[in-house]
Every structure is written in structure tokens, then in C-alpha cells.
Amino acid sequence: MMPSRNLIDHGNDIVIGVLVMIAMAAVPAMVLFAVVAESVDQHKHLQYISGCNPVVYWLSHFCFDFVR
Fold this sequence. Notes:
Elements: H1 4-41, H2 43-49, H3 54-67
């Protein structure tokens, strides 16, 4: 039979593992949310119609994502 302290350590390891898995799943979900939102709202198409240069559009998105 295992000592009770060892069981607590294993329980903590399981909780930490679950939290890390949730965090690793949340990061790609946030990135994909921005892609899906742009696809639905058509921001890029609106900027192109209004005469925005594509280089300026993509550079501004890169800078915003870098700061955020």
C-alpha cells in the first residue's frame, strides 16, 4: 500500500496535467477564433473595397497581433 503523501503528490500531478492540457487547447482556439471571425465579418474584403493597400492591411494585422 502506498503512503498517503505519495497519493496526494500523484493527485497534484494529475491536476497539473489537466490544467496544462486545457491551456494548450485554449491557445490554438484563440488563434482560430480570429480567423473565423474575419471570415464571417469580411473585414479584409471591406478594406480592399475602400482602397486599402494589401501590404498596409497585413502589416497592421501583424503589428496588432504582435502587441496583443
